[in-house]
Every structure is written in structure tokens, then in C-alpha cells.
Amino acid sequence: MESIEPGYHSRPRNWTDDLASGNDLVDQQHQELLRRFEMLEDALKSGQAFAEVKALAAFLQRYVLTHFNTEERYMLAGHYPGSAIHSGEHDQCKRRIFQFKQFIETESDRKKIIAVAYSMLAIWVREHILNHDVQCFQYLKHRKKAEAAVDIDYEWSPESSKLWTPDFEIGIENIDTQHRNLVMWTEYVQDAESLSDEEIRQLLDFIHGFIVTHFTDEELLMMDIQFPDFEKHSELHYATRTKFFEVKEWVGQDLGAPDKRGMVLELFQAYVEHIGQYDTQFKKYFRS
Ligand SMILES: [Fe+2]
Ligand SMILES: [Fe+2]
Ligand SMILES: [Fe+2]
Ligand SMILES: [Fe+2]
């Protein structure tokens, strides 16, 4: 695994006050991104850029997952209305970094690689922060809301579960625990005779936040084990997250009282299927 060496610790020279979001953690992460960008600029001047570009790509792939997870958790907790668009931008960026890593491996023209790396970072870092992050955190600052916590009394165990099977166990504790929780929530919705709109809304908010972190953990795991279907698997995660936003929107509107519980159940069941069909494939790569 590549090490994530901290960059320069001074204030990045490209940092300007208009980039400050008002959230300290997010601002620190953005400064670290800018430092990386500046390391690349310096490497370009000293002729060492190619090695630097490769290290940068490896760093970015891990770093953006953590960073985007941070931002998305804040957006969900604060019920940020632009979070679907903002998360879509993040997914787009993750794809671009993935393509960039593949590009590095096949392109032999080093100058071309360096130019692409430079423009990718220059555009993305400044434009994304200015157009999306600052706007988002300014909004959240003015409208702080506690993260929805769902407190239910529901008895569940993997042994008595109708949906959980021992095949679902991957052997990685935090992923397995997250999967067990997701299956539990699915069965909870399945068994509930009726759920009020408010209960459904809270549950969706809670699971949405949960799943954002879960996907990040899985994507980091896939990187660590060099999972060959990383890109395909991530695409499935993006699709699930998009679906969450859609269902949340439907549930938020009262469209002649459609079967909201049914919609939520379908969404959750699709994810349980994802576990059985796709997540279990980590097992063999993890073991090797
Ligand atoms: Fe962002
Ligand atoms: Fe950001
Ligand atoms: Fe999963
Ligand atoms: Fe997954």
C-alpha cells in the first residue's frame, strides 16, 4: 500500500480566503489537496514530475474517498438540499481519477500525462471547492441540524434472520457488521405493518448516511486488496446512492399516498441482493 506522506505544512501558496468553507475539517482536507497540487507544480519545475504524478494518482484515489465521505456525511446530517448534485460531482471525480490511473498505465508520452494531471487538479480542486463546497458549507452553517438517529426496539440476530445467510460473511469485521445492520433494517421494514411518513423519512436519512460510509469503507477495501472489478463495483454503489436520493424525494412529496413503505423496502432489498451477488466476491481476493 502506498504511504500517504503529508505535504508541506505551511499554508498552501494557492490558498485564498474565498476557498474557506467555514468547516475546519473540510478546510484542512482542502489545504492538503492544494499542497499535493503544489508538490506536483514543484516537481514539474525540477524535472521530477513523472514519479510525482504516479504517487499523486495513488494518493488521490484514497484521499478523495475519505474527503468526499466527510463532506457527504455533513451534507446528509444537515439535510443539504443540493446534496444529490454535489455527490454526483464527487462520483464524477472518482471516475476521472480512476480513468487517470488507467491512462498512466497505458500512455507512454510522459509530457501528455503530466499535462493531464495538471489540468485535472487545477480545474477540479479550485472549481469544485469554489462552486460546490463553499456554497454547501455556508448553507449548513446557517442551518445546523442534528443527524437523524433512529431508535427502534427490534429483535434481530443473524441466526434467526430470513434474509441473512452465512455466505454473506466476508471475514472483515467492519464490513460484515455493516452488512448485518443493513439486513436488519431491511427486515425491520419488511416486518413493520405500517410506518408513518415521519418514521420512513427518519429511517431513510439514517440509512442513507450509513450507506455512504459503508460504500467508502468497501471502496477503500477494494483498493487495498486490488480488487479487479473495483470500477464496476463502484458504479453499482453510485447507482444505489442515486436511487436513495430519488426515493427520498418521492417520500418527501405526497403523491396521493403511494406505497412509501414498499418503495423503501424495494430499495433496501436491492442492496441485500447486492451483498449476496457482489460483495461476497471480495472473499476470494481477500483470502489470496
Ligand atoms: Fe465536495
Ligand atoms: Fe471538497
Ligand atoms: Fe456492501
Ligand atoms: Fe458493495
For the secondary structure, the number of strands is: 0
What's the mean pLDDT score? 84
Order of helices and strands: HHHHHHHHH
Q: Any ligands, ions or cofactors bound here, and which?
A: fe (ii) ion
CATH superfamily of the largest domain: Hemerythrin-like
Uncertain parts = 1-8
DSSP helix fraction: over 70%
Estimated radius of gyration: 21 Å
So what's the overall shape?
globular
Beta-strand level of the residues, as a percent range? under 5%
From the N-terminal CA to the C-terminal CA, the straight-line distance is 16 Å
- Total individual domains: 2
What is the name of the CATH class of the largest domain? Mainly Alpha
Helix-strand category: mainly alpha
Instruction: Give the second-level CATH assignment, the architecture of the largest domain.
Output: Up-down Bundle
Do you know the CATH topology of the largest domain?
Four Helix Bundle (Hemerythrin (Met), subunit A)
